[in-house]
Amino acid sequence: MTSVQQPSTKDDILQFLLKSSQATAQKLAASLGVSPQAIRRHLKDLQAEGLVEHQVVQSGMGRPNYIYQLSAKGRDRFPSQYDQFAVSLLDTIAEDLGAEQVGALLRHQWQRKAQHYYATLGNGPLPERVQQLVALRQAEGYMSELHTGDDDDTYIITEYNCAISQVAESYPAVCGHELAMFAVALPDCQVERTHWLVRGENLCGYKIRKK
């Protein structure tokens, strides 16, 4: 019988920092229910592995605070379906056929994906459709979560990693495609971006409001 590997405290620390952007050892300890001493040992190991980095913030005359956050290597630990091969392939297409052909290819890709989303979600109640959309995104490698908005017809989808981050860095137009896909998948809704990893924020956020 194959045993299921349980998440470790180090994994919990990495996920917390992914969501919160940064935190002190005390905050991590309180949030994860682990002693500060144990948290500091784990943080030391994670820094040695290059997954976590810290900055020192002086507040008043007391001891300085150590603020921890994920390094670029730490972010790369989270699911990503597309790697440098996809970027290399697009670069090759651009060299051989031109940038316009790459743009047309990416547009065709998001249009197909948007139609897949729409066909999968159907025309049921909005709460069920947005929950299913989040499930689709999670299956694609996004750390996606659903939150309620200010009223019953508003929802917020947050994604703490980008499953196409390397593609997005080289071809940022795909980020606009993500927004357009949600709009096609939910044609009776207004979709707007609230946060953006590309802008240096710690997540991508989308507000979905029924028209």
TrEMBL record:
InterPro entries: ArsR-like_HTH, HTH_11, SUF_FeS_clus_asmb_SufR_cyano, WH-like_DNA-bd_sf, WH_DNA-bd_sf. Coiled coil: none annotated. CDD domains: HTH_ARSR. It holds the Pfam family HTH_11. Residues 11-50 form the Helix-turn-helix type domain. It comes from the Bacteria. PANTHER family: SLL0088 PROTEIN, TRANSCRIPTIONAL REGULATORY PROTEIN. This is Iron-sulfur cluster biosynthesis transcriptional regulator SufR. It comes from Leptothoe kymatousa TAU-MAC 1615. The lineage of its organism: Bacteria, Bacillati, Cyanobacteriota, Cyanophyceae, Nodosilineales.
